[in-house]
Amino acid sequence: MPPRPFALILILALAGCTALPMGRGHRDGGRQISSAANFDPARFGDVWFIVAAYGAEAECGPLGETWKPTGPGAFRVTGTRCGPNGARAFLAETRVTGPGRMIRQGAGVQEDLWVLWVDADYRAAVIGTPSGAFARVLSRRPVLRDDLMNVARQVLEFNGYDPANLSRL
């Protein structure tokens, strides 16, 4: 007997709720991860300071990104990221693929990038990768208020990151 359409839909829906396998990096891949369904790409553009990060990225010094809208749900992102010899300039094209989900391409690398949280006024955001390769706390100002940083830590923990390993820049 061929599978019934309802059963197939149910199986596919349940598959979308499973946790990802153990990822490399800073995230427990056995935990579920969620993107911000209320993410508004039109409000995300402009300058963001990276105020907290994991691993070697946190040892690079001040880092930042400028998100310039290039079309509906598309950005050209420029800024600094951590390289083998310290902070390095980068350029990436980023496009929205779903609620709070993007693909960023630059320097021959493509990565899934998820907005895990953004506050109502777009003063702070948490972005990360489902693989756990990185996560960052972004702020419109060089120093993030403590209450917003506490929320960012809670969001990271909820999504499988260890907030104890998060370093402020």
Write up what this structure looks like.
This protein is of the alpha+beta class. The protein has a single domain (31-168), classed as Lipocalin (Beta Barrel), CATH 2.40.128.20. Helix content is 17%, strand content 40%. The chain contains 3 helices and 9 strands. The longest helix has 13 residues, at 146-158. The protein is globular and about 35 Å long.
**CATH architectural designation:** Beta Barrel
Distance between the termini: 59 Å
What is the general shape?
globular
> How many structural domains in the coordinates?
1
Pick out the low-confidence regions: 1-23
Strands side by side in the biggest sheet: 1-2-3-4-5-6-7-8
**What is the level 1 CATH name?**
Mainly Beta
What structural class should be given to the helix and strand makeup?
alpha+beta
By CATH, the topology is Lipocalin
The CATH homologous superfamily is called Calycin beta-barrel core domain
**Mean of residue pLDDT?**
87
Strand % is 35-45%
Helix content: 10-25%
Element-level helix/strand string: HHEEEEEEEEHE
Continuous helix count = 3
Q: Main sheet? A: 8 strands, antiparallel, barrel
Radius of gyration: 17 Å
Number of strands: 9
How would you summarize what this structure contains?
17% of the residues lie in helices and 40% in strands. With 169 residues, the protein is of the alpha+beta class.
